[in-house]
Amino acid sequence: MTRADWDGAAINGVRRPWRSLTAAERLRLVAEDGGSCLLALQADGAPFVDWATLFESVNQVYNADGTPFTVKQARPCMTGDRDSDMACMAKQDLHFVYTYQPGSRYWPFQWVETSAYTMLAVLLCAFGPWWVRHRVSLSNR
Question: Could you list the residue range(s) of the whole structural domain that residue 9 is in?
């Protein structure tokens, strides 16, 4: 892969947009130096390059001392050279904080969700025929 930019890259000499690549093709991409060029992708398949925005909008990235990681701290690592940028970020010793529900709550949540959707379905099944009868009776007047 050569000439990579925001929109795509030349893959085997042919310019292709990121979104045209399948997941398997993305995993097989090889940079000019022989290493992997897959760092992060957006949902549409384009490479994720706007790390500054990520650090601004999400307070889940922290320094080793527990303080939020800021754009100001990230700027020195944004040189454009992938290897040195990644090495610089690794030296930051960043931590990500995730909030999740423990496995013991899985089935209770499933039953609550199933109950809510079942109630909604029952209400719609009762409301549908009533609405049709109501509309028919109005048109007969």
Answer: 1-49
**Are the C-beta atoms of residues 41 and 50 closer than 8 Å to each other?**
no
Number of domains in the chain: 3
Say if residue 88 is in the same domain as residue 118: no
CA nearest to 21, candidates 30, 31, 33, 11: 11
Work out the widest C-alpha separation in the chain, in whole angstroms: 79
Q: What is the pLDDT of residues 7-52, one digit of tens each?
A: 777 888 888 887 787 767 766 676 666 665 655 656 666 665 555 4
Nearest Cα to Cα of residue 25 among 3, 41, 6, 48? 41
Q: Are strands 14-17 and 8-11 parallel, antiparallel or unpaired?
A: antiparallel
Q: Which of the pair, 44 or 132, is modelled with greater confidence?
A: 132
Task: State the pLDDT at residue 70.
Answer: 79
| Residue 40 and residue 17 in contact, taking contact as beta carbons nearer than 8 Å | no
Contacts of 98 (CB under 8 A, 6+ apart): 60
User: What type of residue sits at position 53?
Assistant: T
